[in-house]
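go over this chain:
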Amino acid sequence: MEMVAVYVDRGYRTGLGTAFYDRLVELERLDKLVFSHRTVIVYGPRGVGKSELVRYWLRGLQERGRIAAVYVDARRLRGQHLVRALETRGLLVDKKNLAERLLEVLKDLDDRSTGLLQLTYHAIDVLIDVIREYASTRIILFIDEFHLLPRYMHKSDPASKYLDALDDLEALAGLLAKDPHYSNITIVLTVSEGFTATDLVLSKLHGYSTAWMLVEHLDVDHFRALYKEYVSLKSCGVDVDEVLGLVGGTPGYLPELCMLDRNTVVEERVPMWIAEVETGLSRARNVLSAEIFRRELEPREVIRLAYELINNDIAPLREPHLHALGQILTTYNIVYPVYPRGRDGIRYKPQYPVYRTVIELGYREGVETLLDLDPHRVYQEAVAKLHGHKP
């Protein structure tokens, strides 16, 4: 029997070209948070549809006349900087035409210094004029993927990049929360970088009327419906079970995976996912060895700890080593934290099912490094888990 989606808006087209599916719970929560806070950070795994969710929500509010909105795409600004860098090297033949297509936002800003504060202050100056005319209107400044703003991307050290972005966030949230001049403005930020969900960021922004909203994977039924529509518009080299088994309900992964066939996914993409997890665990091993255990951890120990982390709720005060591991892997976008309502502890979930498979398989096989795992075995187990049976 064909599944009937709980909510499908076929009058709306997403960036994939499909209708908008589900997200009723998230839409209701976003509405409550925006109208009760001054800064709202929407975070979650890459590709789950955070940006599309906010755009859809904004459209609904604007159609009902509830708000005025300003939309800034940090990816476009980042692209603007890269295009100009190419221009200086004489690598663009048709510079004007390409630039006109890519660049539409805030052309007067120096890309090298454009961070959240510079961008926002510029936008707020414009918003103040709007507020004078529409004094009772809520103004939403939506900055999509703010971590990609050019100023942060010039840092070679990821930690330095995150700290710069956090400094800007703290100053901006404080401004909006405490200056009555900006009482009509709320800023909504989407971010795919896990650092915004760590304890450091939560503590820094505490008391500044800041809220976090987690967007997780689409459920299986709604993703299957979305996939069916997507492949009716475009061809796809992998089936829906393969996509779900590897990356879960992440619509943003469809353009990439659908361009590949199964062999290419196994031979090229799965090794990349394995390497991503290995990189995160290697960094965690160094930090835990130096700061928590005060001894050199064996790689197998860290894999075991990661296995425990993703299969249990963590009590930070009783299990500081696991909580520290979760924070590190959150920063490296391997896991994301979920704070269950009405329960103590934190659940750290892998960003994608394939990450869980890599960690669990590495633990069971007792490998010294995850790079020793067979990509074919990882693929088979990941897809088999979708149906709850062993490969």
